[in-house]
Amino acid sequence: MRRIALVSLLLAAFSAPDPSEQASEPQVLQIKQTFDPNTIKVAPGAAVEFMNMDDVNHNLKVVAPDGSVTDLGLDKPGETTKIGFPASGSYTVICGIHPRMKMKVAAQ
Ligand SMILES: [Cu+2]
Q1: Ligand 1 centre and the CA of 11: distance in Å?
Q2: Which range of residues forms the domain containing residue 70?
Q3: I need a labelling partner for 72 at 20 to 30 A (CA). Which of 14, 22, 85, 104 fits?
Q4: CATH code assigned at 42
């Protein structure tokens, strides 16, 4: 009886999607001094995780639809920075260290 209860618990854990897991943020890699993916679409208010897979520092900056720039500081190798995109519109994410690193986030 006890074993049956345990098995059904395990099955529930594997089959039922956990709502908190579904809500996990989309991820963008900073890899080989590029953003992967290079464009991403999110719902307004959503956050995106930016993971530094390189062995060099990056410096994430977000250019909002109104042109204002937010500097998120140094993003060291292995670090993940979570960035929220509060309003709908087109955001540009750049790296302050590597000018060719540039991507678009469409919040819509
Ligand atoms: Cu960089």
Answers
A1: 43
A2: 22-107
A3: 22
A4: 2.60.40.420
